[in-house]
Amino acid sequence: MSRSLAFVLNVPETPQDPEDSQEPSPYDESEVHDSFHQLIQEQSRWVAEEGLELQHRALGAGALGASGSDRQALLGPEGAPVYSTATLRILASMPSRTIAASTGRSRGAIISQYYSRTVRLRRRAGRPQLRDVGRSARPSLRLYDLELDPAVLEEDEKQGLLVKELQGLTVAQRDHMLRGMPLSLAEKRCLRVESRPPRGKRRARGRHGLLSCCSRLRDSCILASHNLGLVLLSGLQALMPWHYALKRIGGQFGSSVLSYFLFLKTLLAFNTLLLLPLLAFIVAVQAAFPPAPSGSAPAFRGLELLTGGGCFTHTVMYYGYYSNATLNQPCASPLDGGQCTPEAGGLPYNMPLAYLFTVGVAFFITCITLVYSMSRSFGESYRVGSTSGVHAITVFCSWDYKVTQKWASRLQHDNIRTQLKELLAEGQLRQRPRRACGRLQQGAVLGLVWLLCLGTTLVCALAVYTFSELVIQQSRVSAERDGALLALPLVVCLLNLGAPYLFRVLAVLERHDSPVLEVYVAICRNLILKVVILGILCYHWLGRRVGTLKDQCWEDFVGQELYRLMVMDFIFTLLDTLLGELVWRLISEKRSQRKGKPEFDIAGNVLELIYGQTLTWLGVLFSPLLPAMQIIKLLFLFYVKKTSLMANCQAPRRPWKASHMSTVFISLLCFPSFLGAAVFLCYAIWQVKPSSICGPFRTLDTMYEAGKVWVRHLEKAGPGVSWLPWIHRYLVESAFPIYLASALLLAVIYLNIQVVKGQRKVICLLKEQLSNEGEDKIFLINKLQRIYERKERSRVGRTEEAVMPPAVFTDDWDAQ
């Protein structure tokens, strides 16, 4: 191996540069560049006076001979040029690292650099500022001679100088300086031990000052608080759900499979946030003041776990159990709107108003959280700027040196290896061109597959609509026929399970080059299927069932129908996970005569999560405890999916980086799912007449009229609360605030887009500026090197002329 370059400090001044003592200090960057310009002008003027012409370095290499060969620029370990003494002296004073990275840095160079930095720190702390000192008294690295000879001063001497300077710093400055040095941990420990002041000096300092005990007490308190913070931080990480499981999944199966489990974790947080206000302001209050029972409760038969009816009907599970009275008050006779008149001596709780406002506020909080999560995901996935150099960052900066346990190091090793596979696969996909004929053929296949998928979706929609109409005509909702209520959810779940398998078989014909595009296409097809089916079900519930269940509580029926769909979807998901993936693995192993496992279906599983969450949002108004059922479902689903993934699935055969998958999942959850559920609930609140025999809105024309009744009560209460009816009249009922909020939202989106564009332009300009600065400094260094070489050649030429024998001139004279 070639020996690395060692920069050596030579204390005596160089006699070649008489103006070095008047040069400015290298701490001022602008003056350093001025010194560049002055040095180039002086050398160029000297060359012009001598009458030398500018020649290329390669043309004059042979004229120097052996005497000047030791002054020529050599090649370093990897072909990098080794510059002369004067050039290296300029390099040492330059504030930029652009050229230093190209010349290579040894350990001695690093120590020399940090020696200069510690000198500057110590002088800054203990001496007046440089601008207050005369120019001749300022320290400058140009007063030292930088040689390439390692025999002048060894590395130990430079390390000794660094240790001495570190001893002159404070403890905080010394620790900060050692922490920033690009050295190994063993070398940093050695420098830390050597830079500690001697014991005698520490004792003398303790005798002369009374701050030693206070300093030790302060350091002990700081260390104890730091350790306590680390313990609390590790405890918080341990409290994070599935922390180790998610790391293991990401290390073995990559970021694409990990995105599904992260999305499941996000849904769990959304449902928890939605359930808390419902429990606090609706369920708990009604459970504390239960209404009078209307009859004997039916016995539990076990089928209620699937149908949601029976003994569950008259509980806080469904809408019909909640009263329309003002709680905590004896109800006399219902007045306008069926509201009870509160008597003095208690705190009234208007249950209809609380029900309506709690559901609205819970949905508003969910909307804000969704928008914030989506914007944050966009900021993390689509960062402004390029991703060049991400391979080097992954290789050299991904390892966590604080890992001490064997299993943690193995997990981190697998994670880094999977990341490198994804990055390399992403780079290879960008380099694969496709011919025009191949593109036309693939386009024709894509069109045919899309027609087949859309036809399958249309057939499924017609099947759901036909079966729902048949159920309305032939069934009667009664306790004796609870099993017949499972027919429609069973058909819907069968179609939701079978159609994605058909889509997956048809996707084999497409042969997408990019696995990311393949997943996006599968998500789009499954999403169209589920949106169409849910749209037909919503029409079935609010358009058909409301008319057929006039004398019954149709809100309870809709809530039970959503409960049945959720339960059947969970059962079919378990069957597909436990049996489908296992059978698929056994078939693939038998067919290929080797250990072949199926891949994890990201598109189908993600759409199942979005479908289940949509059912939860649709049923919040009719079943306030439906988010609790969704939480239990997600918890079971995580462990079942993780177990099946480890046992029955393998990592993707074509690894790909899921950098934008989380953003796509949150976007699909926000716009088709949450927006559709919000439209459904707004239509039910504003347009559909509630049941007249159950629920908190039983005597009103619409659920929204509960707010109007409350406003009329406030108008009669007195002038002290007259501003609340005004707010309701002009801000809630009026359409102007909606247009104003829409305009503000569009303005904010436009401003954010312009800010992002401005940031991209600024980043491009800064990159161009950095590139130009590096090129300018390379040009200056090359010009300095050429001037120095011409100077050496002229000196060698004058030396040869001076030592030329006089016989040559005598022979020329005799010849004339």
From TrEMBL:
Annotated segments matching region Disordered: 1-32
Principal location: membrane
Residue ranges with Acidic residues bias: 16-29
This protein's UniProt keywords: Membrane, Transmembrane, Transmembrane helix
Gene Ontology, cellular component aspect: plasma membrane
Membrane topology: Multi-pass membrane protein
Subcellular localization(s) per the UniProt record: Membrane
Ranges that cross the membrane: 228-246, 267-289, 353-373, 444-465, 485-507, 519-542, 663-686, 734-753
Gene Ontology molecular function terms on file: mechanosensitive monoatomic ion channel activity
Coiled-coil parts of chain: none
Residue stretches making up the TMC domain: 553-659
Family indicated by similarity: Belongs to the TMC family.
Xref: PANTHER family: TRANSMEMBRANE CHANNEL-LIKE PROTEIN 6, TRANSMEMBRANE CHANNEL-RELATED
The protein's name in its UniProt record: Transmembrane channel-like protein
Species for this entry: Delphinapterus leucas
